[in-house]
Amino acid sequence: MKVPLFISVLVALFALGCTRTAVKPRMTEQDVIQVAKTAMTARFPDSVAAHEPYHAEFRQGVWSVWGTVPDGVRGGGAPEAVVRDSDGTVTDVHLSR
Predict the structure, then answer these.
(1) pLDDT per residue as tens digits for the range 58-76
(2) Which of 1, 37, 45, 56 has the lowest CB atom count within 10 Å?
(3) Residue 60, Ramachandran bin (φ over 0: left; ψ between -120 and 50: alpha; else beta)
């Protein structure tokens, strides 16, 4: 049961990789940062403001959002989020390492 599923996923990923059309984002960078900051504040209420400004990058239908690590801080710890562009759903919130 696992092998056919794995092969199906592999074929689907290969087919996606073969497409040459660029996907245009539905959301703007500022829109996605606001959505992500709301989710990050719910999970890490004391960390979000300390890691301004936030940046976002769109790639293959998904936005990655991350905060800035202040000077002098080592080892990361800035909030990060992943947001699906198609519907604005936050699929992951975590602290960087």
Answers:
(1) 999 999 999 998 777 676 6
(2) 1
(3) left
